[in-house]
Amino acid sequence: MGYSYTAFREPMLLYEDACNGKQYEDICDRIASMVVMCPEFVSLLQIVAEHKGIDAMVITCGPRRIWEKVLQREGLSVHVIGGGRISDGFVVTADIKATLVERMQTRHKKKVWAFGDGPLDVDMLKAADQAIVVHGAKAVTVRDGLKARHVLLPDTTSQRLDTSRLPRIKLTTPAFVDAIFGTTPSHTADNVAHATDKNAAKLLMTTMRDAAVPAVALREHHHRVGWYLATEYLSQNTTIGIEAYPISHVNGTLTNGYRLHHENKIIIVAIMRAGDPMVLGISDAMPSAMFLHAKDPADLKPEHVNQRHTVVVVDSVINTGRITLMYLDRIRALHATIRIAVVAGVVQEKFITDKKLGGHANARLAALRVSVNQYKGFGATDTGHRLFNTTQLK
Questions:
Q1: Mean pLDDT across the stretch 270-277?
Q2: I need a surface site. Which of 147, 259, 348, 386 has the fewest CB within 10 A?
Q3: CA distance 379 to 132
Q4: Where along the chain do its domains lie?
Q5: Class of 192-387 per CATH?
Q6: Which SUPFAM superfamilies does this UniProt record tie to the protein (predicted)?
Q7: Do 192-387 and 5-181 fall under one CATH topology?
Q8: Contact 139, 148 (CB under 8 A)
């Protein structure tokens, strides 16, 4: 039956005969748990979600519920058009994909960017204003008459398409993001979380401010602060979130444990040297994450961010934010859409009120305390000197 309407309707009828609604949901849950979204698309969709002028949708010829569950697991609210059950009321074919693009263009006056990876997407790609062929591990056949560019996912995939016909792009470059948004979008959501007024923060910050605390104890305390900020704030869905995974219960059964979402695709960057003790605590909270010491933004290389979901940048104190922003600029130069979480013990209030993080889309800040005082530490007052017992240096 090929890719006909009848061919796509037949599985829907078979699903109805094979299982009831609850069984169907359970099967979709199992399949969705095996699906891994490309990090490049996850980070791009996160930015789209924050941009009021742009919407994203998934159009699938397969079961709608699988896509909805995968997107929900990623913390993404994206509309899905697809079938799967008779109750959905329609069947999606290749023609339907193209028709939906044309309707968005003519009825709703929208400019449409379309991404597709196979023959079912060709007509949709032809209809779109901008077409991107996603070239992955499987072979892609491109018909004559398709004007498009292509992207390799993952980036290490061997090149098999004709780049003279389909020029290659990267989803993670600032130029590509600017092409979609006009300019790189500023952050529009509430992107700052801090514990300043919480009793837990008041207890934790006391030792950090006590000049009588020796270096060894102070380092251990920064370690605890890092763990607290990771578990309290990085675990929030608006920053990184958590995911369930199976563990052995003490009673001998399997149960759910929890970890940071895509923990093994997170890289933690310690801004040296004051960020080191705090980053050790964060690392305790996400032991599968990559860990990088950085004395200079140039220490961050393309291989550190490629195929990653999140970069966590850690410093003890953010005063003017000049150094922190240098690191963020470096990350954005390497990967225009990757999620960034900045973690600090103390952040100067003006850094927040001036919205200095606002120029970096898909970025969040988590801090133990916001300070109204602005000063540059030196000698005995410098956090780095206090942490490493070098307060006698000027």
A1: 87
A2: 147
A3: 55
A4: 5-181, 192-387
A5: alpha beta
A6: HAD-like (SSF56784), PRTase-like (SSF53271)
A7: yes
A8: no
Chain segment 135-191, per-residue pLDDT in tens: 865 555 555 567 888 888 877 677 766 666 778 888 888 888 888 887 655 544 468
**How many whole angstroms from its chain centre is CA 335?**
11
Whole-number Å distance between alpha carbons of 239 and 236: 5
Q: What integer pLDDT is reported at residue 374 of this predicted model?
A: 63
Count of residues making up the chain: 394
pLDDT score, position 348 = 92
Q: 198: which DSSP letter?
A: S
CA dihedral 14→16→21→27, nearest 10 degrees, is 0
- Nearest-5° Cα angle at 310, 306 to 311: 85
Confidence of residue 79 (pLDDT cuts 50, 70, 90): very high
Domain 5-181, classified CATH 1.10.10, yes or no? no
Rounded to two decimals, the pTM is 0.78
The three-state secondary structure class of 115 is strand
Identity of the amino acid at 247: I
Query: With the C-alpha atoms ordered 249, 255, 261, 264, is the resulting torsion angle positive or negative?
Result: positive
**Percent of the chain scoring above 90 in pLDDT:** 52
